[in-house]
Design a protein that fits this description.
This protein is mainly beta. It has no helices and 8 strands.
Length: 109
């Protein structure tokens, strides 16, 4: 069957390949958080729509900001190709307003 790049480790010059289901992530952690509406994240588990790929359909998720300022997102259904180094755009639950963006640090299966 088809194989996909699932991870790139620049430090060891290694490319890891896997099956399509290995591209799915249930959550992500992001840094360099830029919130337009920080008050929207006052409580844990703020409901948002998150877009991890350009032109992808925003996915429903729960968001929270850690004490160190990192953004954690937990998707309702797994998201495909959550890639470290890429941006994640965060919208309100209705998808009408941009709440912020962040740089993906890691995908969590």
């Amino acid at each position: 069957g088809a194989r996909y790049v699932t991870r790139i480790d620049a430090a060891t010059n290694t490319i890891v390949i896997g099956r399509e289901e290995e591209l799915l992530a249930w959550a992500l952690v992001a840094d360099e958080v830029n919130l337009i509406r920080p008050e929207s994240f006052a409580g844990a588990g703020t409901r948002v729509l998150a877009m991890v790929r350009y032109r992808s359909v925003p996915s429903p998720a729960s968001a929270s900001i850690a004490d160190d300022g990192a953004l954690s997102l937990r998707f309702d259904t797994p998201a495909r190709a959550v890639t470290p180094g890429q941006l994640v755009a965060i919208f309100d639950e209705g998808g009408d307003e941009v709440l912020g963006a962040a740089t993906i640090r890691e995908a969590v299966s």
